[in-house]
């Protein structure tokens, strides 16, 4: 197997939960493992954009009973910015050049999201971390991943998850059933499979953006996916 990436440009989605350990918040051992994996992926020469979630810190919907949803969603977006800064530090410690771009402006600590500037960073081999979600309440970072992937003309969305692909039933219930190697977006919607929210699925489907869902914490998986090995589930 060649040591190069089969994709020139990819968008990696990492959920906030992936950064948490036994407790919520950021677990630095988990962060280090993820950064090591991204380092290996970066060595393949792929241009990499990363969308990071915030669920380890705060999710808007979880506070709906107590707070206005719009405010709580902004808190969720800010949570993704905290994760982005942590990831940036971890990557730069490994000598990977990075830029964080946020959809809500916090110009003291990160660039605002400017597509053309993001493209220039990617051209130069910098990893661009997209934080702040879409900048709009009622959306998710999965939708952000689909959106940014299209904006930067990525060839694929790599959704790194806790499970090793898409199952007939939710594996969390202990009865996952069959795992799909490949599946169409429309089937994911029809079957009500829970891997992604319906907005992100529709966006990918309507714009013919393929996505591979795979297990993040299995060592070497990002590299394997980038090298074109059959890992996880491909949705197209
Ligand atoms: N969020 C939002 N708009 C966006 C992206 C995210 O309002 O475009 C908020 C929302 O409250 C969400 C939180 O940010 O719950 C964290 O994002 P997400 O739940 O997607 O993170 P993940 O599940 O990937 O950790």
Write structural notes for this entry:
With 236 residues, the chain is α/β, with parallel strands linked by helices. It is built from seven helices and eleven strands. Strands 4-3-5-2-1-6-10-11-9 form a nine-stranded mixed β-sheet, with helices on both faces. A two-stranded antiparallel sheet has the order 7-8. Helix 1 (28-43) crosses helix 2 and helix 4 (141-151) packs parallel to helix 6 (198-206). Bound molecules: uridine-5'-diphosphate (UDP).
Task: Give the % helix.
Answer: 25-40%
Shape: globular
Q: How many helices? A: 7
Strand content: 15-25%
Q: Which regions are unreliable across 5 or more consecutive residues at pLDDT < 50?
A: none
Average of the residue pLDDT scores: 94
The secondary structure category is: alpha/beta
Cα gyration radius (Å): 17 Å
Please provide the ordered H/E string of secondary-structure elements.
Answer: EHEHEEHEHEEEEHHEHE
Determine the N-to-C terminus distance: 24 Å
Hetero ligands: uridine-5'-diphosphate
Secondary structure layout plus pairing:
Elements (H helix, E strand, L loop, with lengths): L8 E6 L13 H16 L3 E6 L16 H25 L4 E5 L8 E2 L2 H9 L3 E5 L9 H11 L4 E6 L4 E2 L11 E2 L1 E2 L1 H6 L7 H9 L4 E5 L5 H6 L6 E3 L1
Helix pairs in contact: 1-2, 4-6
């Amino acid at each position: 197997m060649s040591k190069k990436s089969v994709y020139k440009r990819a968008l990696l989605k990492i959920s906030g939960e992936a950064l948490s350990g036994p407790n919520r918040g950021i677990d630095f051992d988990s962060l280090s493992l993820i950064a090591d994996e991204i380092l290996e992926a970066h060595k393949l020469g792929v241009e990499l954009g990363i969308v990071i979630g915030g669920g380890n810190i705060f999710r808007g919907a979880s506070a709906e009973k107590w707070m206005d949803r719009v405010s709580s969603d902004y808190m969720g977006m800010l949570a993704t910015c905290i994760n982005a800064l942590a990831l940036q530090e971890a990557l730069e410690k490994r000598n990977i050049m990075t830029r964080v771009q946020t959809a809500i402006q916090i110009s003291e600590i990160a660039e605002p999201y400017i597509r053309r500037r993001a493209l220039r960073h990617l051209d130069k081999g910098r990893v661009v971390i997209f934080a702040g979600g879409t900048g709009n309440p009622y959306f998710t970072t999965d939708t952000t991943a689909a959106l940014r992937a299209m904006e930067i003309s990525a060839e694929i969305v790599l959704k790194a998850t806790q499970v090793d692909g898409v199952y007939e039933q939710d594996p969390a219930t202990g009865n996952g059933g069959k795992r799909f190697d490949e599946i169409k977006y429309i089937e994911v919607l029809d079957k009500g499979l829970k891997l992604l929210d319906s907005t992100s699925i529709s966006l990918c489907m309507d714009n013919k953006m393929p996505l591979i869902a795979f297990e993040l914490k299995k060592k070497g998986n990002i590299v394997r996916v980038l090298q074109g090995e059959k890992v996880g589930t491909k949705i197209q």
